[in-house]
Write a sequence for this structure.
């Protein structure tokens, strides 16, 4: 008999290590652009930064305790250096200069991810 059989016979519940929940990260978007979050550019940027799209929440404003990783509302707001800033997705898709600026702004985040 296995030791687990003895525990079961005595009615003792076995301890199971709980699964860690993945942290949900937030991407800020303009309210008018919430319908455009399925863009392949967004998926590619998240992939390059090392985030799984299933663990991303798109919102128009940051909650008090949310981890914001990308602000693409196009507003000149001062955050800390850990948040990727870019133009809204419609500008990135239509304006080559906005796309170049996004890729340039991503470089420190990609280097940071590769060094971890």
């Amino acid at each position: 008999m296995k030791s687990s059989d003895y525990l079961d016979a005595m009615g003792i519940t076995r301890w199971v290590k709980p699964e860690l929940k993945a942290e949900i990260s937030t991407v800020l978007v303009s309210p008018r652009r919430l319908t455009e979050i399925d863009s392949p550019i967004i998926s590619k940027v998240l992939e390059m930064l090392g985030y799984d799209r299933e663990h991303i929440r798109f919102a128009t404003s940051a909650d008090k305790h949310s981890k914001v990783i990308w602000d693409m509302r196009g507003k000149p707001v001062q955050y800390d250096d850990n948040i990727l800033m870019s133009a809204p997705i419609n500008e990135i898709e239509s304006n080559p200069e906005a796309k170049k600026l996004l890729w340039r702004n991503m470089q420190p985040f990609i280097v940071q991810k590769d060094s971890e």
